[in-house]
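Appendix C reproduces, verbatim, an entry submitted by the partner laboratory led by Prof. M.T., so that reviewers can inspect both the input and the predicted structure.
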Amino acid sequence: MMSLKFLFALIFVYLASILAIISIRPYAARLFLEDIPQGRKQHKAPTPVIGGIGVVAGFYAVMIFFGYMPLEQPAFWVASFLLFVVGLLDDMHEFGSKIKFIAQAIAALLMILWGHNKLGSLGDLFGTGDVVLESMAIPFTVFFVVGVINAFNLIDGVDGLCGSLSIVTTLSFAVASMLNGRSSDAVILFILSAALAGFLSLNLRLPKRPAALIFLGDAGALFVGFVIAWYAIKLAGDQSRIMNPIIVVWLLAVPVFDTLAVMTRRMMKRVSPFKADRTHIHHVLLDLGIADHHVVFILFLVATAFALIGLACTFYLRFSDAVMLMFIASLFALYCYIKKSLFSHVRKSA
């Protein structure tokens, strides 16, 4: 797989993503693709939300021009492009969450019914045999896809965070694919990682660049979230499973942990789980006085550690699903305890 052509493709997609963003940036205001500072938003100047356009443009350009687009997966390309378009329209006009949820559900159904990609079982989680979903397979898969997409969308609250965590996950999936001889899947995931790296080079805060030049936007978040959900199910689903579903949680740990913790807390307080607040882990760390770029680096390291442990325990140590479930559940409980303690400290200091 690591041919000269492939290495050139990685360089090309990285540069193509940057070039697409730079080319569109002067026209962002006229296209209604700017995020205007207001309300809870922390940035101080109007910022173009065109990162997703750059990622998708670079990704598709390489897929087509280098001949890596697997045409036997039309559902993947149609569903992912559908979410990109819906996200782009939302970036331009902000038509609300209901339409986005409907689009995500449609994309998930396209994946299941057209792409034949779904979760039929959750693995041997309790040491008593596979937990088979049977009639719940389709609704559970839809719930999973929508949940993953929104987990990455919700974590996009600090410059560079969503892109960094997405790269951790896509590279983890790529490594898992390579270890099991699935080179075609690995190629797509590596190329998406390179496109995200191009976006990050303009989105991360740097010592001489205290603010992001562009944001990912819903177009990018929905597209990337769906691709991650697709490959999570493809690698752990019914047709050609190379890892058990519980390992996916390890590779998605930070956004999944944060979304579960935040929504559980909101429901316990009897408010909508989708009500915006400042209880995400990045908000808590920011409110403790930690700099934005340090928050991104901390959560990037945590996500990388989870991914490495998950991959090592799966492909080298061969731990059982039940052990991995107990391990990840214990770490989630620890995560919630630490976050609650930090949040209490923030409230006392306010």
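The chain has 13 helices and two strands. Additional entries are available on request from the coordinating office.
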